[in-house]
Amino acid sequence: MGSTVCRTVVEQNDMTLVAAVDPKMAGIDFYQMTGVKARGIEVVGDVSVLPMLGVDVVVDFTNAEAARRNLAFFAENKIRCVVGTTGFSSDDIVGFQEVFRQKKVGAIIASNFSIGAVLMMKFAALAAGFFDSAEIVEMHHERKLDAPSGTAIETAKMISDVRKRLGKGFLEDPTKRETIPGARGAHGGENIHIHSLRTVGAVAHQEVIFGTLGQSLSLRHDSYERSSFMPGVVLALREVFAIDSLKLGIDWIIQRELNDVFGGDSRRGED
Question: Do the bridges between strand 80-83 and strand 215-223 make them parallel or antiparallel, or are there none, so unpaired?
């Protein structure tokens, strides 16, 4: 993801790549490490040097442990950030929101930067009120360490929130006994089950399956390459300069695009 982000930034006419951070690759030639043709780029081992390099915004695709430290540093040094790291707790998010609000620094944390995936989640939320059951199947590459994916968790939450607002619950799981524990997957709330697959050759895939009397609806999104996340990253990089606090997801950015087509409320995303 880091190399792909670097390549994407270099290709933008209104962006300049200033540095790359990789603790294991510090001091190594940037082109040798990434294959991205860019001159004067430093590969540094720690974010602490970024303020001296004149960085305006950072893209963070690390892990939750590293990102917790990084985000606190970015806010303190008034460096905007676009974050694709998942695995944060609710308390983490509340803490991030508070510090970025206090420092008046723009930041965006999103579980998925694929525009197609974001639309799939919005479509799932739209459909949630019309069906009696919902299951989520997510599949990722064999190197993904966490399960379920952040996208699956967020999708379940969006569906669940719709059901709660409508005062409807999904039908209870009829399963009384799992012959093999875990066969019905993880509980995503409101009787929504999440099933995680880790498969060689996969990148990022998710299907939401709704059911009601005599019919079903399946919403599926597939990312075949990491380049699929880059249009969303670019959108976030441009939008983060217009905000002065932490925003979650990029659906509120995409919603504005939908409003331009269909009309509707164009308010900014909620904190």
Answer: unpaired
Over range 216-227, report the average pLDDT: 95
Verdict on whether the full-model pTM lies above 0.85: no
Residue type, 141: H
CATH code, domain with 65: 3.40.50.720
Residue 190: pLDDT over 60: yes
By C-alpha distance, which of 216, 250, 252 is closest to 231? Answer: 250
User: Among residues 24, 78, 104, 140, which one is catalytic?
Assistant: 140
Each residue of 146-181: pLDDT tens digit?
A: 899 989 999 999 999 999 999 988 888 889 999 999
Same-domain status, 80 and 213? no
Q: Are residues 177 and 212 in the same domain?
A: yes
Examine the residue annotation and report whether 140 is marked as an active-site residue of this protein. yes
Name the average pLDDT for the chain. 90
Structural domain total, the chain: 2
Catalytic residue among 103, 122, 144, 168: 144
Strands 215-223 and 204-212: antiparallel
Residue 245, CA distances (Å) to 26, 50, 89, 102, 253 in order: 31, 20, 19, 8, 15
Please give the residue range of the domain that contains residue 178.
Answer: 115-223
- How far, in Å, CA of 43 to CA of 75, rounded? 22
Give the dihedral sign, CA 38/39/45/49. Answer: negative
pLDDT digits (tens, 9 = 90+) for 124-141: 999 999 999 999 999 999
Q: What is the CATH number of the domain that holds 120?
A: 3.30.360.10
Q: What are phi and psi of 168, to 5 degrees?
A: -115, 145
Which pLDDT band, with edges at 50, 70 and 90, does 269 fall under?
low
Catalytic residue at 144? yes
Instruction: Classify residue 271: in a domain, yes or no.
Output: no
**Rounded Cα gap, residues 241 and 46, in angstroms:** 23
